[in-house]
Amino acid sequence: MHVSGTNKGQALILALIMVSSAIVIVLAITSTTAYNSFVLRKETRRTLAFQLAEAGIDRALWCLNKPAVCGNPYIGETTQLGAGSFSVSVAVVGDNKEVTSVGTTGNVQRTIRVTATDEPATSEASFYYGVQVGEGGLNMDNNAIVKGNVYSNGSITAGNNAEIQGSVIVAGGTALTPDQSQIVQSSEYDVGRTTNETDAAQSFKAGETNVMNKISLYIKKVGSPSNATMHIVTDNAGLPGTTELASGTLNATLVTTTYGWIDITFNTTPPLIKGSTYWIIFDVGSKNASKYWIWGAHDNAGYGNGIGMFSKDWGSDPWQSANADFGFKVFMGGVPTSITGLRVPATAGGFVHANTIQTSNISANVECQIMESTTVAGDVECGSINQGTIAGNVTAENVTNSVISGNLTCETESSNTVSGVKTCPTAVDPPVDAPPENMPISNAQIKQWEIDAEIGGVVTPPGGVGTTYTVPNGTTLGPVKIDGNLFITNSAQVTMNGIIWVKGNLTIDNNADIKLSPSFGSQSSVIIVDDPSYQQTQGKVVINNNGDIQGSGAADSYVMVASTNKGITALTDPAIHIQNNVSGAIFFTSQGMLEISNNAELNEATGYLLQLDNNVEVTYESGLASTSFTSGPGGIWRALDETWEEL
Description:
Helices cover 12% and strands 43% of the residues. By secondary structure, it is mainly beta. It folds into four domains: 14-118, no CATH class; 122-128 and 436-622, no CATH class; 178-330, Jelly Rolls (Sandwich); 336-421, no CATH class. Strand 1 (76-81) and strand 2 (84-93) form a beta hairpin. The radius of gyration is 30 Å and the shape is flat.
């Protein structure tokens, strides 16, 4: 084909324009890439400098408690650490000490300041129920009695004449493993610290169609932030939507200054659809540079089915990518739970709720989805009732073979005797399962108490680490770590002067007694029984032959004994076994069985699985609703929560 000279010139000009445009685009891309790389490097250095400054604070607090190692008085230091350094200075301000730490990497610096005090640390816990039980459930043998309310995340099975004198709620069961999770953390993200990052969110894709029972977040706190609100919302074109499915409270007292997995339950158990995207919203409310949260995260999309984002205000401000996935777990429900064989006598305001109730005798109002062969003196709302004897009114989807003294409202019924008005068929919505209840103590709190105990000193048994320390009569213990088993026996009287961490097993027997120092007044303290490396076999507690634990003698003072043992392969393998009355203790198992036997009487029991043997009695004391635990009488340096600030 012939091309004229004019056309050749036009083609050349067009080619030059195209080449020039390509060069401009390449330069723009190169410039943008270089700029983004610069910003990323700068942010990485800022994060590292901040972590170095925090390391300096941790080092200073450790040194203030180790004058023999770091010098007395300890005034600070400069230390190289990895790719940077921290410089710490300590100044005396009245009875306290002001600690300033500067973290440096390259030409980037960040500075943190805290006030240290040697006053004892306190933490709050609320025991609202006479008995609270985790997913392992509650077993009550013949004539066992609980005088108080019960909340159980697992089933309740009762023997002859076993009864609960109060309200009883059994939540819908929770799956033992998460449906969705991101558990590998390589970075962290501040929530509620600055205006731009007040709220945060993480999306996830449901792996099955089911109700959602709870979530767990990998978090810690700086200072003492107020409770935060968690929302579960639908997705809107890849961003958090405004349709809320559930909300719950992040209890700040369960979170410490070290990372831990913190459970959050919700006001309802929302149904999720397999393959659909949902969002966890971390709603702080308002920012505070000295009281905020830190959410563990994984850079570069550690979780393939979601993304982390942040916003100034999740209700009104646009979302921005966090370029990370936050640490989370989502647990589904749908696991059947029940009450079997239980007697609930009439009490003021008594109420019973469970998925399934069978062969029970209840003098209270009842909510359930299935009822079989049960007598009820109150009203009933249920899905299906068979062979019920009910004195009050009944609202249910289907009722068969039952005797009802009150009115009946239902969708279908057959072979019933109804004394009142029958309104059938009528559409009925049966009650939904109750949401699970969080345990009053978190694993993060247990870890912090272990740190507090070890700061007070370490006792190695005479036979070496891992052997048994038999405590002489008249000994004062705490705050202290026992690097092995602790044995209190033969009428020994031991005074507890702070948190005790037993890295082994604890036995109290033969009329021995451990009592909290009178100096604690109405405060309480903790005995932690935990070997983090051997929780399957270690961390067990036995109290028998009139062994006892007492508070300070003041009202509302207790000693909480907490076990982390999880060897629940059989009902003969308890984490805590109480075989006689104990006058001033709270017992807690985070992941094992608590067994009470030999007609023992207690004030409160909380555990993953609870076994009440024949004739055992648990009587709730109202002072347990707000219990304050303290690390000891003082003398151990720690950072005051309200004083943390970045300069």
